[in-house]
Structures are given as structure tokens and as C-alpha cells.
Design goal:
Elements: H1 18-26, E1 30-35, H2 41-56, E2 61-66, H3 69-85, E3 87-89, E4 95-97, E5 105-107, E6 129-132, E7 137-142, E8 156-159, H4 167-174, E9 197-202, H5 224-246, H6 250-270, E10 272-277, H7 283-286, H8 288-297, H9 300-307, H10 325-328, E11 329-330, H11 336-339, E12 364-369, E13 374-382, E14 387-396, H12 402-413, E15 421-426, H13 435-453, E16 458-461, H14 471-483, E17 491-495, H15 500-506, H16 524-527, H17 539-552, E18 562-563, E19 566-567
Parallel strand pairs: 1-9, 1-10, 2-7, 2-8, 8-9, 11-17, 12-15, 14-17, 15-16
Antiparallel strand pairs: 3-4, 5-6, 6-7, 12-13, 13-14, 18-19
Amino acid sequence: MNQSNNRQPDYIEMYQNTVQALVNIIDPNKLFAVIGRGGGKTSHITARRIIRVASEMPRETSIISHKSFVALFTNVLPTVLESFRSEITMPDGTQRPLLIEGWDYCVGEKDLPKHFVQPRYPLLYPERSIVFADGAVLQAVAVDRADSVAGRSIVHAFLEEMKYSDGEKVRTRIIPAIRTSRIGSGSAAHKSHLHGGITGVSDIGRVSMGEHNWFLDYEQETDQQLIADILTLALELNKYAVNLHNGVKIRYSEAKLAKWSPLLNKLRKKAVYFIRASTFVNRDVLGLEYFKTQKDILGMSEFLSSICSIGDRNRDNLFFELWDEEKHTFDDSYKYSVINSLNLKETFTVTAEHLKYYVPTQKLLLGYDPGNFRSIVSGQVLKGENTLRIFKEFFVYPPEDAADIARMVNAFYGDTAINRQIDLYYDRAANKRNKQAEKEAETDAKKLKKELEKYGWRVRLMNIGQATIYYWQHHLLWKRLLAENERSIPRIRIDANECPNLVSAMYCCKKVVGSSPVELDKSPEVKVRIDLQAGLTPQIPSAMTYLVWGLFEKHFPGVRNYTSEGAILPNYVG
């Protein structure tokens, strides 16, 4: 970034797949890239556009946004910084980081190195900013925190994982901040074709899972003829740039570049480019076996959306048929008095300390689904709200076991909890009809109890002596709870930020076709590879059903007479 030290090479060797190369050569003012997982959206598109924006507009401020600060600090910015640190090949064959921290950029620093150019405006949030040696600033902002961008004048906006952000909030909170004056400030930033631009990346949102595809509107704003003209001219000018690098046709190439570069800049400044690509764009890196494996282990809906960038709308035959993600989840998860103090220089891990609704003086409730894949949902009943709030999901699979999931629970809640009482609800009967299964489930619960008590928790097993609970009973209770049309009935709210797999898996819980009474289809637990089961099978929702039944059985609306051979349902309504 700092040209005076002569460290910046004339060229470097870097791998690009086809889409990345296309994006770089077109280099539009507004770019919307919808690419499947493993396509290098953040590491190869966002990160490199950040460097280009910083180089084109020294001393100016850009922003990078996500749905929440937590997502930025834990997922996005670590990927960007890792990209900055990635090794590149220099012209002489040696290797070095793409950018050197402390020399080319600094992270979370209020006092900048002496050789840095001062940014145009004071750093309002240095702890959330990356500053480059030329004075360019990249500030992290959260879509769910309007005040994090209020009053800012920015030259470019980077929008990460757009599907998770509400489109209306992006349009009303983020995009209006893209403004800088052309007069009076001494800035020539507006001459850059990237001035006032947007770089948005995402994979396709699954509508059936409440994700947002608002950014697809920009596909209609792409002028294909303009993009073709930019591509033709950019490739031609690239030839002249190569000539200069190789020391051939120097005057001729310089004249051509001087003549046509302003036109290319003008065309790029007008351009909106929407590109959609599947993960197959990275097939040379990932290998075809990767896609075969993904096809085998993912459901078709997940494969189409995550790999092929094709959306879905599959809510057919849901076991939780009244499930409404917008109604039954919440995303105002965190105490921003704590979140606002975060610094990019620090390693950040979310714990219960950061949760807005968690009450340390109140006991903790756990729903536990034992077995090979162990899952826990944790929460509290907030009586003032008459609401069960599910705060956090946990899961492990071999070689991890009960000791590991107990450690995870304690790591999240242990340092904050004042009341160290846990009520543990589990599947004593495992929805099976044999005594051995019941004994195994209860044994698993006792093992978890023992492991938790090693950390000083007091654990009560809440299901000892409980009769077998059938799926049709869970189904009826959930219908009543999710309907929310009775004032006295408690509400259920799931933290969408801390329980992403639970929210995803709610859509994977289907009824067994033709079952009467209703049965839950557990076949995904056999079909899906165990390391992918968290968000694609009924495992974690099952843990929640045990908790919900244990807490709210009194609200069960149906008959209770059943035998070990099957339910007797004279009044049953499915």
C-alpha cells in the first residue's frame, strides 16, 4: 500500500478461478457476486476489492458490513485478514505476505505508525477499523446496529453474506452512507471508478429457511452490453500493460493506455455487474470428488442452494407445520454495551456474558438428545414474558462424547452463572418402545449429569419415571404452542445467531408420509454423514422437543390414552 518503501512489486503471481478473474477484469462500480460455498467470495473477491478501494482512494473511509458485529468479528474479518497474510510469489521467485501488518496496514489501532498517512476524518471506532498505510480506512458496521454507521460519509460499501441481512435495513441504513463531497474537502476520490460503489457477496438464500434474496433485484440492473464493452476494452488495455511490463512497444502501449484508460474508467463507474456461479467454478481446486461427496451427503435442497446457487421454497410436510422463522426466532441477541467494546486485535469468543436475555441468577434449562450424535439446546423461561428463550445449541459426535459437550456448556455459561442449577430434560424413552432403549437414554443422561457436576453445576434429571412420549403428542403440543392464539400459552423464541443449525434443521423435520398418527421422519439421520447432521437432520430439534414437553406438557391439547403398541386416538386431529 505504501509505495515509498519500494516493497510493492510490479506484479505478483496469484491464483484466480474463472469468476474471480472475470470480476477483477470487469472491476465494476457495483458488484454483486452470488457464488456457492467454497468459491472464494470473501478471501478472493472481497479482500482483493478492499485492497483496490484502499489504493484508489487514499485517506477515505469504506465500510464492511454483516448482519451483526459478532458475525463480522468471528467469521468475516478473520478471513479478510488471513487473505492479507497469504503468501504471494514475487517477480524474483521469493515469497512474502500479500500485505505486511504494521507496515502496509494495522488492525484495531488508535495510534497509527509514524509512516502512515493520516485518514481524512478522525477514527471514530479504531477498535473496529483496519487502517492502511495510505490513510484509507475500512470500518466494520452491523446492519442490526444503525448507530454503527450513522453520520458516516463513506466511499465504498462491502456487504458480506447478504442473504443473512434484511434488504430493507441495508437500503435504509447502509447505502445512504455512501456519500462524499466533490468540493471543499480536497479529495479526488470521486475520480475513482470505485467511488460510491458496492461490493456484495453471498451464496443464494434458502427462502424456506427465512434467508433473504433481496440482492437478486440487482440482476435486472446489469447492462450486459456495457459489461461486454468493458470486458473487451479491459482485455485490450491489459495487453498494453503486459507490453510495458515486458519492455516491448513501450511508446505505443503508453499512448494507447493514455488514450483509452479514461474511457474504461468511465464505463466501469457506470457499471452494475451481477454474477451468479456455482461452487463448480472452483472445481480445479476442490476436485470433482468434492462435488460427488457433497451430492451424496446433502439433501437436494441444500445441494442446490449451497453448491449450485439455486434457491428453494420447500416447506412441504413440515413436522413443525406452524413454524414461522420470522415470528419464532430473535436476532437482537447481544448486549451491545459489551459488543461495542470489542477490538479487532483481540480474539473474540461469544459466551453467555454477551447475551441480552440470559439471567445469571436464574437456573439453566437443557434439552438433551443422547446417542452417537449428541445435541443440547439451552435456555431459560422468562416468566415476565411467559416465554421460553433458547439461547444456544451444542453438539458433538465421535470421537467427542458427553465429557466434551459438558465442557462446551460450561465454557459458554460457567463464568457468568450465579445460579448454577441445571434442570436436564432428555429422551428417557427415546421415542422407542423397549426397556433397553429407555435404560440407555437414562444412562446417557446420568453420564452428562456427572460430567457437568465436575464443573460445580447442580443437575436435576427431570424425566425419571416419565412415560413414553410419542411423536404425535409432540406434534399436537407444538401446533398449540406455535399458533400463539391463546394468551395463557407460553411463547417459544430461538436465538437465530447462536442456534443456526437448530433453525436450519427445523425445516428438515418432516412427517413420515402417510403416517397416522403422525411420525417424525428420522431417515436423514441415517442418510446424512454425521459431521453434517447438525443443520440437516432432526437431531437438534429433537433435543428441543424434550425440553419443551418437559416444561409445557400441561398444555398438551390431545387425549392421553395410549398403549405400548400404539396410540388410541378417538379425538385425534392431525
